[in-house]
Amino acid sequence: MSEWKDLTNFFRGRSFWMLHYCTGCGAMELPPTMTSRWDMERFGVIPMATPRQADILLVTGYLSLKSLKRLIYTYEQMHAPKWVLGFGSCTINGGVYWDSYNVIERLDKYLPVDLYIAGCMPRPEAILDSFKKLRELVEKGEAKGYEKYVKNYEWYKANQDRVLKRTKPVLQKPEEVTRSA
Amino acid sequence: MIFLKLLEGIGVGLLSLTVGLLFMGLARKITARIQRRYGPPVLQNFIDVFKLFSKQSISHGFAFDLGLVAGVSALLAAVVFLPMGQINLFPHNSSLIMIIYLMTMAYLGMAMGVSSSGNPNATIGVARALTMMMGYELPFAAVIFSVYIFAKTGSLTNIVAAQGGGFLNWNMVRLPFGFLAAEIALQGMLGEKPFDMAIAPAEIASGPMVELGGKYLGFGMLQHAVGIYLETGIMVDLFLGGASNIWIFVTKQFELFFIALLINAVLPRFKIEDGVKFMWKVPLLLGVIQALIVVL
Amino acid sequence: MNSNIIWLVFTPLIGSAIAAILYRVKFLDRLVTFSTFAITLLLLFSVHVGQSYTFNLNFMGKIIPLSWNVTHLSIFMLYISVAFGTLLTFYSLMDKSRMKGFLLLLILAANNWIFTTNDMVGFFFAWELMGWASIVSVLGGRDENSSRHAALYYAMMSIAGSYSMFFGVFTLWKLTGSLSISTNVAYLSSIVGMHPWWVLGIVSLFFVTFMIKAGIFPFHTWVPMAYAYAPDTFTPFLSGVMSKYGIYGMLLFLPISLMEKGMPAAFGLPWVNYIFMWIGVTTAVVGTVLAFFQDDVKKLFAYSSFSNLGYIVAAISLFSSVGVTAGIYHAFNHLLFKGALFITLAAVISRTGTSKMSEMGGLWRKMPVTFFTFFIGIASAAGIPPFNGFGSKWLIYQAMIKQHLPFATVMLFLASTGAFMYLFKAFHSVFLGQRSARYDNVKEVPVVGQIVEYLLMFAMIFFGVQPGYILKPIGAIVSSMGLKPLPTMANGYVTGMFSNVYVPLISWSLAISFTVGFILFFISAKHKYVSQSDNYTAGQIPEEWNLTPETYQFSWKFYEPIEGIFAPFFRIKIDGFFRGLANWTAATSSAIKEIFVSNAQIYAFFAVAGLIIFVIAGWVA
Amino acid sequence: MLESVEKKVEELKRMNLEAKALGDWQFEVLVPRERTAEILAYMKATGYKTFIHLACVDWIDDQEFELVYNLENYDEKAQALVKVRIPRNKPEMESMMSIWGLCQVYEREIHEFFGINFIGNPNLKPFFLDEWLDIPPLRKDFDTLAFSQELFEFKEDESHGIKAPKRIEYK
Amino acid sequence: MELRPLNESNTNDKYKTYELFIGPNHPGISGNFSYVLDMEGHKIANVTADPGLLHRGFEKLMERRLWTQNLALIPRICVPEPDVNEVAYCMGVEHLAGIEVPKRAQYIRVIVLEMARIAAYLFSFSGVGGATGLYTAPNWAIGDRDYILDLFEWLTGGRVYHIYQYPGGVKMDIPDGWLDKLSELLDYLESRLPEYDNLIFKNPILQKRTKGVGYLSAEDAIENGITGPNLRASGVKWDIRKAQPYLVYDELDFDIPETGDGDAFSRFVQRRLEMEESIKILRQCIKQIPDGPYREKIPNPFQFRVPAGTYYSKVESSKGEFGYFIVSNGDIKPYRVYVRGPSYSAGLYYALEAMKNMRIEDVPVWIHSMDICPPDFDR
After folding, report:
1. Mutual orientation of helices B215-239 and B62-79 as an angle, nearest 10°?
2. How far is CA C283 from each of CA B15, B41, C272, C280, rounded to the nearest angstrom?
3. Is the pLDDT of residue C596 over 80?
């Protein structure tokens, strides 16, 4: 049975279908990666239109709150096994938007990230390398973010709801709020 | 005896799947080369299909399951009637119209499956695919009936037999207009550009495939694979004089598919009504001219 | 002993009287209707080919011979019509729609009379009975106003047809002095060489009637209205059985082949047949194109019926052995699948209360049996093997190509592909897609309805896989018409001129491949079922956009892009012609009325002159 | 400085408005709130047909909002910044939708980011932000860093495997 | 009986329309942005734009950073062509602070701007291909764009974000041999142009798809604040480089190509022709670039104060007028910066009118023909 698992992992690692969702400016380096200069199709990676068809979710950069909501919805529509790639420094710690009121700082709190790619923005070589790295992780059976998400669903949900379903002002200054309204 | 036929039939099905997937892989490679890329491995599509069948998926109900399975199964049921070189399982049962109507069942199944998901993108895709089907079936029908009248038979086995004896006896040479018309219709049948409005990703997010994932998408890919095999196979039998063995048959199929690929790589897609109008102008005219030549 | 034929007519009449008395008692009314149909079906077993019976009616001193004669064709038509009627009345036992049983029984009486009679008086009388009973039946639709309008329109067309037929009957009677149909047809055949135009004229009088009843282009204008607004359980009968009376009539007169009799020929056909064939092809194409753009599901299938009758006409007009076989075969298949489709539609409409396709959708989970019946129905109608519509469509193509008619064949192929398009539109809009919340409580039809649906499904598959059971009696009909029947092989074979199809082989092939497909389906990774709202929305959250099933269902203007292609087509207004004719007639009549009203003397003169002409005509006759 | 700009500035000064050139091809004019619609319509009629943007500046020390209508004249190659000041404690302004339909979107944006109410604009629903409950974010008294730290603060959580990201060494 | 069946009145409107989401996760939209279409059949009845998916609060963040720190932030506003941000911002700051920029630095800026423009045009070619299904076009165009990015990398050290401009000039001088490489690249690009013509602009099917789609008259364009190539494609000859020359554009000889049909095809062709002009400008720059300092010295960036004042500085970008409205109160940080992205009016306002009654297959064509770049308005 473990041979069978190895075999499926071997094939999964060679056929990553990527969701065509440009969440941020990092998506700018995806067209060169897809097209003739770097050609990620060599590694079996192709962009797919809908979350149902995709295996990996590239979070290309910063995530605004509105985007995060849609990203989570999209992630939950994907079929297991699925992997999340944090792309660029914004997904790691907020990047240059560390003090922005509308950009989340750590993707890890809201979605299980299997692999981060550093840089702002990561070069196509780095993206290709990340695919190779992810392939190694998948073949070793270590990239289990989707299982982690299911296991710790309440925790993730609580984190998500904390930023997405706010019921009162974040900065506790109700008197100012009433004045501005 | 029956058991042997059964095995043979399953063998033919596997053959068509293999060749179809191989063609799809080659298609990706060749397209990549035209686009100045290296391209994926030739066997990439086998990897993809295997992965898809090992992936979990969601379903919208039994009609969804049945439709997708029917898409592949009906085509596999049709492919056993196709004479291919020395492999001809049912030589007395290879009526062309029957094969074409059997293929319609695959389309019906696929359309039913994807529509039952209730996604309007998928339904628009299906509406477009059916509209396009009306476009290309008309010239193709004109060609088929010309060949019927010309060969005085409707069985593919006999049509192949009538073309024996060298290149000059091929219908491609004898019915050149018909061949051209059928070639353009084939482009539409294969769903290659400029006639791929049904799946147009930039417009309707890959159309019918929008809700397919995991094994359902795998079934979709297999259907496409068998479809390529069957449609090019019919063309080979109709116009390229069939083949004496399976290797030559597959080579001839690939030649036709290769032409379709080259056109596919350098053209954008039509609007749906422009596509239908084009089909009813150029290939239909060619088909009608051919029919006139044959009848008179 | 041969009088059992007339019991075929009297039994329904008696049943009708009982049903009329019990009209107020809803269930009994239906029960009587159903039992009468069943009894008639039983009676049919005692009727055999070759039976004949004559009854001399003494009418005001004149002897009018009423004769019955059972031919191969009539027994075939009797069986399929009565059997289908039995199924339908069984279905409507539980139905709440306002179909009037006694009228249906009157139609049954007329039906049996038309199919067995051999004299033109009986034929005409039965024809009128059938016409008027069906007109009144149309009246009870869901939409009072529309159905009244439809019935009126239908009545006008019917009357026009009756006049035409009456004139034809009168002329023939004048010419031969006989009222027997077979005698007259034989007479016409004998003189066709000398007076082809006369024969053509007389036959045309009858054909206009038949074309109106069958709804052939350009007399199709009543069809969509009457079909759409008739009571839902009456429409299957209207479409499945009653449209075939026209075909039956045509088959009676078709043996007057104009071939080899000095008429010019086109493409190896007498040009009259050639034109008639093109009328059939036009009917098929026009019906298909009009069906694309309907939103009322019954109207869509009305156009579909109209289109299918075009197929039948095109096939029988060839008057070759393949053609007539294919035509009758298709008539049978059409009765079966269109009847099944209209019955499922009646089920759906009774459950949802609407016939607008854009307001339905996603019903397949709620009505699975109906869904599968519908599915097999449209697969049959699209001509997909191994269901029953395939064989006849395939034979029709064979017949057409045999005559070297590639263009007509291509047009028929267009109609067939188009049929697939509109059938799928109906299928999707009614059963697939998103289900509106207001249909959450929709239930499957009662058990009685389900039994009928299972039977119809079985019939559609059985006669598809085993076409021999239906092709053998058709072979007998064809040979009784003096044509060479198709070679009959084993039950599963459909034998054409160009190639053979052994349908059980296709079924086996399909069965095995589906088995393989499902094995693959079940051994691969798991799937889970999700609700219809869990859908791709390009990442947007459905709740934020107030997405409801209604606003995520695409069925309105399904084939809009090709509307432009057919736009010139829509500008031709056929009913405009008829309306213009009606206006012209009205104007002329009022002018004539003006003459009468303005001057009493002139009125008196016309009255006297009319009387004199009438008396003279009586003497001469 | 362009001649046309000079002439326009003179002309606006004659209309009792504060106007001054800012560069070679642009000038600003300060308009009282009541005359905004009139002046903008006048500008549009005299060739400043293109509406470039509507910006808002929060002068918190003056307790005023400044709205800047940026107009462009393609024929005279000139650009005008029409400035209107409104009090900060009563942030209301007439909508200019009737002059440029385009204003609708800009006004909606400014309503969201500054909390200015545009009278006559029917479409002031939330636009860029989702469920915003705090004071409008582009006001000077909104502290984005405090907001960010409060909402997105980072806590090490070993129990759920959230720790400092592991770096992957590139070979 | 009616033979015009589509005139049938449907009593319930809610069944007639359905929603279709173009974006954010959709191959037809460029960037993280969304149009929600109310569809009636295959036609669009109503459009709603849903921005905010990219909103990062740039304008707020810039108020928190030093004048020079902002240079690292602002390229992220417009990703396909980041240099216009830097140049426009620097020009505004220089105007307010009264810094005179050396001639060589101005030439370098023109070179950078025009290279970025060519890169953006190549990117828009790929958009044409993606929208119409001609996938060879993206592969070719983005492959060629990469050569430009390589040169950028050599010049500035960054592929996409260069952070190369600085108040008073540019950060570093042009490396040796860089200009030769640039002219080689220009030769190469010029040799590629006929191939693009054959593949894209002379393609009969593409012409059929794009001609007549999204017609925009000159009056509508002016009324709706459409600028740049889209405006010129509608027949208005307005180019900031010509009309209000900044940097050294008045010393360079170039034309404004005229197409003027106002439909999607003429907008595509406009970009294609302007790319040729950009190549012409670059060649002149290579020839004319003077020696001298590449930067005017400015004081310690931590003490760099810009005198109080307001200024609107603008640059002609590949999409239209890219403007920075800068307000300074004499502090070390900007008091307020407003960014005017060229796609704002087209993407958020004009789209809602233009897409009405359009067919679904025209939507991506329209989006890519207007070159709508969501970060422009979603800052």
Report:
1. 30
2. 43, 53, 16, 5
3. no
User: Of E20, E139, E209, which has the smallest distance from its Cβ to B268's Cβ?
Assistant: E209
Which residue does chain E place closest to C227, by CA atoms? Answer: E1
Residues of chain E in contact with residue D52, where contact means CB-CB under 8 angstroms, are 225, 321, 323, 340
User: Which residue bears the tokens 């069958």?
Assistant: C214
Closest chain A C-alpha to C539 CA, distance in angstroms: 5
Among partner residues C545, C560, C575, which is closest to E41 by beta-carbon distance?
A: C560
| Chain A positions in Cβ-Cβ contact with residue B206 (cut-off 8 Å) | 48-50, 53
Instruction: Classify A2-180 by CATH class.
Output: alpha beta
- CB-based contact D20:D12 (threshold 8 Å): no
Q: Does domain E58-376 have CATH number 1.20.272.10?
A: no
Same domain, C589 and C560: no
Contact between B210 and A14 using a beta-carbon 8 Å cutoff: no
- Averaged pLDDT, C481-502: 69
Q: How far apart are CA E329 and CA D58, in angstroms?
A: 12
- Total domains, chain C: 2
- Do C593 and C465 have their domain in common? no
Q: How many CB atoms lie within 10 A of CB E98?
A: 8
List, in sequence order, every residue forming a beta bridge with B37; answer none if it has no partner.
Answer: none
pLDDT recorded at residue C75: 86
Residues 189-248, chain C: which have Cβ within 8 Å of E? 221-222, 224-225
Residue E8 pLDDT class (50, 70, 90 cuts): very low
Query: Do C496 and C605 fall into the same domain?
Result: no
Q: Considering only the beta carbons, identify the residue of E3, E23, E40 that sits closest to C573.
A: E3
Q: Compute the nearest-CA separation of E344 from chain B (Å).
A: 22
Tell me the count of A-C CB pairs closer than 8 A. 15
> Which of E5, E36, E39 is facing C293, going by the closest CB pair?
E5
Range of the domain at C585: 577-620
Domains in chain D, please, with CATH?
Answer: 3-160 (3.30.460.80)
Say whether E39 and B120 touch across the interface (CB within 8 A): yes
Q: Using pLDDT thresholds of 50, 70 and 90, give the confidence band for residue C570.
A: low
Q: Are residues C499 and C550 in the same domain?
A: yes
pTM exceeds 0.90, yes or no: no
Task: Judge: A121–E138 Cβ closer than 8 Å, yes or no.
Answer: no
- Give whole-number Cα distances, A53 to B107, B200, B222, E282, in Å: 21, 15, 15, 45
Q: What local confidence, expressed as pLDDT, does residue B23 receive?
A: 92
Q: β-strand D26-31 against D50-59: which pairing, if any?
A: unpaired
Q: Give E-chain residues touching B270 at CB under 8 angstroms.
A: 205, 208-209
Domain with CATH 1.10.645.10 in chain E: 58-376
pLDDT of residue E4: 36
With a CB cutoff of 8 Å and minimum separation 6, the contacts of C10 are C109
Structure tokens at C231: 């009571």
DSSP state string for C357-396 = GGG---GGGT-HHHHHHHHHHHHHHTT-TTSTHHHHHHHH
D88: closest chain A residue by CA? A180
Under 8 Å between Cβ of D95 and D101: no
**Closest Cβ–Cβ partner in E17, E24, E34 for C551:** E17
Query: CA angle C31-C33-C36, nearest 5°?
Result: 105
C539: nearest CA partner in chain E: E25
Nearest CA in chain E to D71: E225
Q: Is the same domain home to C419 and C445?
A: yes
**Per-residue pLDDT tens digits for A112-160:** 888 888 888 888 888 898 988 898 888 888 888 888 888 888 888 888 8
Handedness of CA A33, A38, A43, A48 (dihedral sign): positive
Residue C34 token pair: 């159903």
